[in-house]
């Protein structure tokens, strides 16, 4: 019997490795799904003296898009976000770790898809949300509960496949 233990351990490891080949590395489970969105109050970019807190968006379904001007993937995602905003999707921006303060000028040049953008210069709010990089997008429901976290840029295909069904469900 003791001779079979290493063989059984090998089989178990092989099964886990095989199953791992079919996992999507962008689908990182978030411990925040189903929990209230972490509270914060941050300054609104381009509006001196104004702040925003997720509490202000309660009562509507909204997206929190974590982005940064130095993020190449965010620039790839930007035209899609512009289309979504034009169709009435409420997107709030979290400008993450923008040490050089480039976000305001970038949005002025390229247009802003955001209802408003808050400035998380030191990255602490991003840490509270479990952000590992940019872009990341959270779907937050009317009660302020996080319903989904998407890592990476939103493409039209991703929007249709992942976001539209959930948003339809949350809006009813």
What do these coordinates show?
By secondary structure, the protein is α/β, with parallel strands linked by helices. It has a single domain (27-171), classed as Glutaredoxin, CATH 3.40.30.10. The chain is 35% helix and 18% strand. The protein has helices spanning 4-20, 72-86, 103-110, 124-128, 156-171, and strands at 42-43, 51-52, 62-67, 91-96, 117-120, 136-140, 146-151. Strand 6 and strand 7 form a beta hairpin. It starts with a helix and ends with a helix.
Average of per-residue pLDDT values? 91
What is the radius of gyration? Answer: 19 Å
Helix content: 25-40%
Measured between the Cα atoms of the first and last residue, the distance is: 58 Å
Estimated structural class? alpha/beta
Q: What oligomeric state is this? A: single chain
CATH architecture tag: 3-Layer(aba) Sandwich
CATH C-level class = Alpha Beta
Number of helical segments with 4 or more residues: 5
Number of domains: 1
The largest β sheet comes out as:
5 strands, mixed
Tertiary shape: elongated
Strands across the major sheet, in which order?
Answer: 5-4-3-6-7
By DSSP, the count of extended strands is 7
